[in-house]
Amino acid sequence: MAGPLSDLHIVDLSTYVAGPSAALALAQLGADVVRIDPLGGATDTRRLPLAPDGTSLYWAGLNRYKRSVEVDLRTAQGRDLVRSLLACGGDGHGILITNAVGQSWLDYEDLRRSRPDLIMIHIAGRVDGKPAVDYTVNAEVGLPWLTGPSDSSAPVNHVLPAWDLLTGLHASLALVTADRERRRSGNGQYIRINLSDVAVTTMAHLGFIADAAVNGSQRLREGNYLYGSYGSDFATRDGRRVMVVALTARHWAKLVQLTGVGDVITALEHSLRVDFSQEQVRYEHRDVITALLTPWFAARAHADVVRELDDGQVLWGDYRRVDELGRHGDSPVSTSGLFVDVDQPGAGRYPVPRSALRTSGWEGPTPRPPARVGQDTADILQEWLQMPREKLVELQHAGVIAGASPRREGQLT
Amino acid sequence: MAGPLSDLHIVDLSTYVAGPSAALALAQLGADVVRIDPLGGATDTRRLPLAPDGTSLYWAGLNRYKRSVEVDLRTAQGRDLVRSLLACGGDGHGILITNAVGQSWLDYEDLRRSRPDLIMIHIAGRVDGKPAVDYTVNAEVGLPWLTGPSDSSAPVNHVLPAWDLLTGLHASLALVTADRERRRSGNGQYIRINLSDVAVTTMAHLGFIADAAVNGSQRLREGNYLYGSYGSDFATRDGRRVMVVALTARHWAKLVQLTGVGDVITALEHSLRVDFSQEQVRYEHRDVITALLTPWFAARAHADVVRELDDGQVLWGDYRRVDELGRHGDSPVSTSGLFVDVDQPGAGRYPVPRSALRTSGWEGPTPRPPARVGQDTADILQEWLQMPREKLVELQHAGVIAGASPRREGQLT
Fold first, then answer.
1. Percent of chain A with pLDDT over 90
2. Annotated region Disordered: where (chains A, B) (predicted)?
3. Contact call for B196 and A242, based on CB within 8 A
4. Cα–Cα distance, B194 to B101 (Å, whole number)
5. Which of A239, A343, B68, B324 is the most buried (most CB within 10 A)?
6. Which pLDDT score, from 0 to 100, does residue A404 have?
7. Strand, helix or coil at B95?
């Protein structure tokens, strides 16, 4: 079957990472996502990294599988058009994702007058209205002081916008749940998700807040060790790095066996009266374990380390550089089997993934370039609002809408 | 209304972060989640951080709002019990989340013989069956070489298990979508989600893979700078740190105004013939911007910096330490308003959050301690399987089930 959410018609008026990634996850499940793009595209359409022709590869990644209506959002007519797109249609319509701030024309109670069962997902920074982005909320939950080598004297930010991405998926889960509920009860829902709330509640789920409250938090920065169990990075003879983890007793047994440190470990266990098959014990003695294992890695070239770790069924990962994330033999881009090479006019040809969900019965959208800004303006206004052609031409000439492609059916000019 | 997913009855046979966080997100939306705990609890029930009495605060955080059935999963009778819990019940039953590896008694096709519309969410490491955990897949997608100060010579791991958490939310989104589809078509679904797939597809959504393929990736490690725009950390006179971001032209204008560098910036813009209101330009000139702004922060005490940044409407975040994540005046634990102090017998009293979703009409579960391992064994076998009391006693005496509390109704011994 086609994507299971193909009966959902979502208006996506969001920028940067959280909102667009929420809509992307839904589009990959088949939802019809209509981006509302301001004239010329929002600022994030020019965000780095860029292809040589100036196309934003970042924006392309997050905005694939969505259609685009290009509207002058500064005009009353443009805003009314968006409100009409939210008010129209049947069961699967009337759904908005937005991170727009302080836009009174998007007031939920006001929008509900035209569409009483509206579902609105409002992504924001903080509950008090103060702005926040991934990097500021990450600083506030304390992780940068726990990241990096133990002798660092400054906080170290993460590079993955994890809070944005988590907020996006919470938003998509909330949206599908709200639609499910609306189909049963007929009631819409306003759902506000603040980046700051997602960060601090997640820190609570992982035990950080309880640890601070109950123990005053004993956690220190400790480089690439894995807190609470055993995991460490090692350098190979030729200067490559691998991450090795022994989370379970079985992982640990395999690692000890491969590296031949069994006798020393047994002697240590006897003299210290501990059992290294317990993860807490491995964590406590992580420095001595690392010291014992380091020579094994330092004595071998990377290629041999890779082969032996695999053959020995050790849990490990290779430290790859992002520029190696192409179609190399053992890159996850190749081994996942999820990527399809896509030609994006102007930007070039590059691997684009299918959905990460491998299902027994669903088919997600086929990897393709994102819709250009305004590519679907005419189609959507005709489909959703049954707007007559003359009205489209009038709005286009007045500069309220833009972007109808001269080469596509439904062209306006 | 109660949680919108209160008609879902989910069997959660998962450990560590991804599976338990998936089930937690659903439980916070009202789903009835039944954890299957092996006798004495899985290894993650003893994971750090611990309360002084040995209770895992980590495990408590991820396993709240779930009921617990304690079963000897090594026995055929115990496995049959779990299979019965998956086969029983009406529309909202027949849903499994698991990260169990190589368990033939949990084979999807086999389970479907008793429950043809079963929904099974299978969380795994990699498509080829090789194990992977957050820290190994993170190494493989290249982020640790982009994290940390620009003069670092080694990879820097993240501390937040972001890939686990993202995988968990993808799983919860997939589950609700599968239930929605099943209610319409009657069809179940097998959904496999590999950590490695989530990581590499997310890297593609963010433009990393395209950048590598099209440009050979120009990204270098660059400390706490925000890639593609302007963001940097600054030290205050008294040695505290703040993260300051100018993502939009407005943020930039506010920052320039507050720090009084407007004239210098204008002169720079003229001489360089650039416009710093463009984020790409700010990114390109991040070092000179930081050099110009540093004295402002270095001249002021933290308390003054905080006040002036807030008054000046600058986008910023305070670098807090995790041990400051208690109920301090301006900690997000306090300011979010989401936390309730909960007494957890043995562990102590600490703040536990409500759901991060602020909704117009839903009520999530009230913060409370997690169910003890086996706390609901008798209740669930009676409710779900209508198991007679004699049978319960027999299974308990045979050691197949455990955990019925002697103080609760439905007690067995």
1. 90
2. 352-373
3. no
4. 12
5. B68
6. 62
7. strand
Interchain contact B100–A (C-beta under 8 A): no
Q: Give the three-class secondary structure for B88.
A: coil
pLDDT of residue A209: 95
Contacts of A242 in chain B (CB under 8 A): 139
Is B350 an 8 Å CB contact of chain A?
A: yes
- Closest partner residue to B205 (CB to CB) among A61, A178, A245 is A61
Cis peptide bond upstream of A49, omega within 30: yes
Sequence ranges of the domains in chain A: 9-202+342-375, 241-318
Cβ neighbours, 10 Å, residue B128? 12
Residues present in chain A in total: 413
**What residues in A contact B326, CB-CB < 8 Å?**
209, 212-213
Q: If contacts are CB pairs under 8 Å, which of residues 263-292 in chain B contact chain A?
A: 279-280, 283
User: Residue B359 pairs with which residues in a beta bridge?
Assistant: A191
- Model confidence, pTM: 0.97
Please determine, for the modelled complex, whether the ipTM score is greater than 0.90.
yes
Express each pLDDT in B47-90 by its tens digit. 999 999 999 999 999 999 999 999 999 999 999 999 999 999 99
Asked if residue B64 lies in contact with residue B347, where contact means CB atoms within 8 angstroms, the answer is no
> Mind telling me the catalytic residues of B?
164
Task: Say whether A218 and B158 touch across the interface (CB within 8 A).
Answer: no
* CA dist list (Å): B56 to A205, A228, B372, B403: 12, 11, 11, 18
Provide the total of helices (H) and of strands (E) in chain A, helices listed first.
Answer: 16, 13
A372 neighbors A403 (Cβ within 8 angstroms): yes
Domain A9-202+342-375 has CATH 3.40.50.10540: yes
- Taking CB atoms and an 8 Å limit, are A43 and B248 in contact across chains? yes
A233 is catalytic: no
Catalytic choice (A12, A32, A134, A164): A164
The answer to whether the CB atoms of B159 and A146 lie below 8 A apart is: yes
Task: Give residue-wise pLDDT tens across range A135-154.
Answer: 999 999 999 999 999 989 89
CA A349 to chain centre: 22
**Closest in B16, B128, B174 to A357, CB measured:** B174
Per the omega criterion (within 30 degrees of 0), is the bond before B161 cis? no
pLDDT beneath 70: ranges in chain B: 1, 404-413
